[in-house]
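Annotated sample (chain length 411).
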Amino acid sequence: MLDLDRFKEINDTLGHPTGDALLQAVAARLCTCIRDTALIARLGGDEFAVIEHMSKPVAEAAALAERIKRALSEPFDLGDHQVITGTSIGIAVAPTDGINSDQILKAADLALYRAKSSGRGTFHFFEPELDQRMHARRNLERDMRHALVSGEFELHYQPFVDLKSGDISGLEALLRWHHPQRGLVSPAEFIPLAEETGLIVPIGEWVLRTACAEAAKWPADLKVAVNLSPAQFRSKELVPVVFGALAASGIASQRLELEVTETAIMHDSEAVFAALGQLHKLGVRIALDDFGTGYSSLSFLQKFPFDKIKIDRSFVNELLSAKEESRLIARAVVRFAVSLGKTTTAEGVETKEQLDILREEACTEMQGYYFSRPKCSAEIAQMVGAEAVSAPVATRDWPAEDRRKIQSAAG
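Output written by the structure step:
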């Protein structure tokens, strides 16, 4: 079983006629990869199945998967558009992985999910533990939907420190989930699933509302930074959600800083640019997160309305590398970010030596364990001399209209 990488993006940006033409071209190429006795079927959307009898199924199926990957990685010329895609493939072998069509399709689908989770352009054979993992994933998704409306999420904050004055200049909101049975669930475990299922959109709205409400209790010169997901831009609701969070909290728009990664922008640059442009005109600050890890060009950086560039922690770590080349590259990235004339924040600062180099290179801010780990809102209130925080922590505490909206989005 296989599906196409980036098909939804192609459909959304180039239109459904182009998407349909791509599916036809993919089917034609698949026919060149198989024997005459094999069967190809389109299961729906961009999913295809290939059924073939093999005398040595493991070796032959792997070879077939490689042929299909190579065939579908070549560009497709579709009228006015040249489209580049790829494929992820899941493989199930009968009777080892199932004795009827339903069992085999389920096994191949689970293997496909594993292949997609491993990165685009890969294939994976079914393994029995995949079924257990899928069951755990469904449970986690169910619990995450419940957490959104029952108050299990909370925000912690990590300070930004001005490298000239040494004062806290703002704080980044970081999502935490306290599960009633499992305890603290790592963001690395639930955020990717939230992205995949679309739950990141209502969760992201909760984060925006809560961060703004809690920031309203801080001194008025402190900004609050919130991370944005690509899915929030695709939902088309981001701008009104930000407007609503600012209005409900009463904080000045200049105190809100939205962080967006290079990768998120490259997925749908037109939609991102339109939304960020509207928000920037309102006075909201825009930060480019994880700078140096994507594929930004100078023209790209000039096009988008960034106020801040956050230098990825991987470069900060290399500032003290034993390899001179690594140190020089890391310094060059910091120097280039500073040269753009934006506020620059170095992420992941953990030592005084790193801090001294960043000051030497005229970096504006730092963030990292050298100054402070992320802290809960009560600890932050004490740190910055704020009022006691009384922001809503569960969607059930919101006004009825807003509560219905987010419960509907959460399913």
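Annotation: Confidence is low (pLDDT under 50) at residues 388-411.
Annotation: The chain has two domains: 2-127, 138-409.
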